[in-house]
Design brief:
Elements (H helix, E strand, L loop, with lengths): L4 E5 L21 H16 L8 H7 L1 H8 L1 E6 L8 E2 L5 E2 L1 H13 L2 E6 L3 H10 L4 E6 L9 E17 L6 H4 L5 E5 L3 H9 L4 E5 L1 H9 L5 E5 H10 L3 E3 L7 E10 L3 H16 L2 H10 L8
Parallel strand pairs: 1-5, 2-5, 2-6, 8-9, 8-10
Antiparallel strand pairs: 3-4, 6-12, 7-10, 7-11, 7-12
């Protein structure tokens, strides 16, 4: 089946695509059913993780089979953050995540259907309700989130840097003080990391533009943010800079979230990520898209 893409959800302002298409050898095209059968044997002989699925019922009830039978992979995301996921000038989904998901759909021999929603709360709700088969929005696999859904290993690394006023702080220690205000994108990898880095300061979750503007307007002392999001903003605002020339203060990993308990589906996706990291497909795509060096998940 050819790769096709459909979009559901809200209209957002179009963003300019700078994604380089990458060709690759596809060795997984016929592997989905094979892995499903192999995992089923493992379940029958040794049991699945968490003991939630076993035998024939596990195979037939898994999204791994349902997606293939349906002929469509439903993925929920938020097309708001170029170059990772956004709408191009023609209004179509584009970015690193979309390119990666097209590869997944091709290996499953299905179409890709993108469901566009405004935030991660809606993304998680779509997976829990069954509207989406997975969420691809760079979610961090926090222990609290892992209570309601399963997470794959990281498919995208996030280099976290600090954006500060031109005459602002020069160290994390200087910012980790009572009275200091740190902003970060709501429910993002940066927000969770900021709470760990700055326990003495006030960490405020905001929409991404508001988080950055709070520093530029003097309402906050720093914004913890991904490198690729900060640089375009700084180019347009001369009163802010990257602290210590953009030296990374942390690295987080965005994961795919899937329904809790679906071992076969989670395991196939996890294996897919490992395979495409090992064969250098994901690292190459990441560097071409973000202009940054890949960092391997632990």
């Amino acid at each position: 089946m050819s790769e096709e893409l459909k979009v559901e959800g809200r209209d957002e302002s179009a963003a300019r695509s700078r994604i380089s298409r990458i060709t690759r050898r596809s060795l997984l095209g016929t592997a989905a059913l094979t892995l499903s059968g192999a995992a089923l044997v493992a379940c029958q002989t040794g049991g699945s993780a968490g003991g939630t699925q076993s035998g024939t019922g596990a195979s037939s009830g898994s999204l791994l089979k349902k997606v293939q039978d349906r002929g469509q992979l439903n993925v929920t995301t938020s097309l708001l953050y170029p170059p990772e996921f956004f709408k191009d000038s023609s209004g179509k989904p584009a970015g690193y995540d979309i390119d990666v998901l097209n590869m997944v759909a091709k290996d499953l021999n299905v179409k890709l259907n993108i469901i566009d929603v405004p935030d991660n709360a809606a993304n998680i709700a779509n997976v829990q309700s069954g509207k989406a088969d997975l969420v691809s929005a760079g979610l961090v696999n926090t222990p609290k989130r892992a209570l309601v859904m399963n997470f794959t290993k990281g498919y995208v690394p996030y280099t976290q840097i600090l954006m500060v006023p031109v005459n602002g702080a020069n160290s994390v220690a200087e910012l980790n003080q009572a009275g200091k205000k740190i902003t970060a994108l709501t429910a993002s990898t940066a927000f969770f990391r900021a709470q760990l880095l700055f326990p003495k300061a006030t960490v405020t979750p905001l929409a991404q533009d508001q988080a950055l503007l709070s520093v530029a307007t003097g309402k906050a002392d720093a914004c913890l943010v991904e490198d690729y999001l900060a640089k375009p903003f700084i180019a347009q605002h001369s009163n802010v800079k990257l602290m210590n020339n953009g030296q990374a203060v942390a690295t987080e990993f965005g994961c795919w979230g899937v329904p809790a308990g679906d071992y076969l589906w989670w395991r196939w996706l996890d294996n897919w990520i490992s395979y495409n990291i090992d064969n250098a497909q994901l690292p190459g795509m990441y560097t071409n898209t973000f202009g940054l060096n890949w960092v391997h998940p632990s």
